Amino acid sequence: DLIPNLFSISERPAVIEERLIPGHWEGDAIKGKYNRSAIGTLVERSTLFTSPAKMNSAGAEAAVEGFTRLLDRVEGRKRLSFTYDRGKEMAQRETIAANTEVKVYFADPHASRQRGINENTNGLIRQFLPKGEDLGNHSREELDKFAWLLNARPRKSLDWKCPAGLFLPDFDFVKYYSQFFALRS
Questions:
Q1: Looking at residue 20, what DSSP letter applies?
Q2: Does pLDDT of 182 surpass 70?
Q3: Rg (Cα) of the chain, in Å, rounded?
Q4: What is the pLDDT of residues 136-153, one digit of tens each?
Q5: Alpha-carbon distance 91 to 100, whole Å?
Q6: Which tens digit of pLDDT belongs to each residue from 83-96?
Q7: CA distance 122 to 183
Q8: Which of 83, 131, 160, 166 is deepest in the core (most CB within 10 A)?
Q9: Integer angstrom CA distances of residue 39 from 15, 28, 54, 123
Q10: How far apart, in whole angstroms, are the C-alpha atoms of residue 64 and residue 121?
């Protein structure tokens, strides 16, 4: 196995499966042209809040830097666990766990359905970042913009609420949108 000392998804506490408490994430890396570039994707399981991680390559060191930087932007009580596939970019998962204090679990081999929320979200992200594109060309600001468009979109599975409203309940959306639309006019 490429990932030493991994924790299997079968070891995950039942509370994660219930999707009642925000802070449990599913992650992946979507690869760019010739697999030379990547964007890390995280989606919170209960709110569907999506956060992309800027990565400098598709390697393990880039995953450590990208996911550490991204998870450091999330308050501690909303970053409890992280479930990933067994991609070689997670070979240094122990470093990510140490840097962020997030427990990292791994899906079974060839079982993408165990991270179905993330797989679906990757499809939505591909609306903004099509296959065959060099993903290294996108800035952190561009990735945040794409994520905001997804997070502000009402979802049927959330009773037509938007992920941002559930994950960030104290955020002043009216003020944000009035500033956003004022800038565009």
A1: -
A2: no
A3: 16
A4: 889 989 999 899 999 999
A5: 16
A6: 998 888 888 989 99
A7: 29
A8: 83
A9: 28, 8, 5, 13
A10: 21
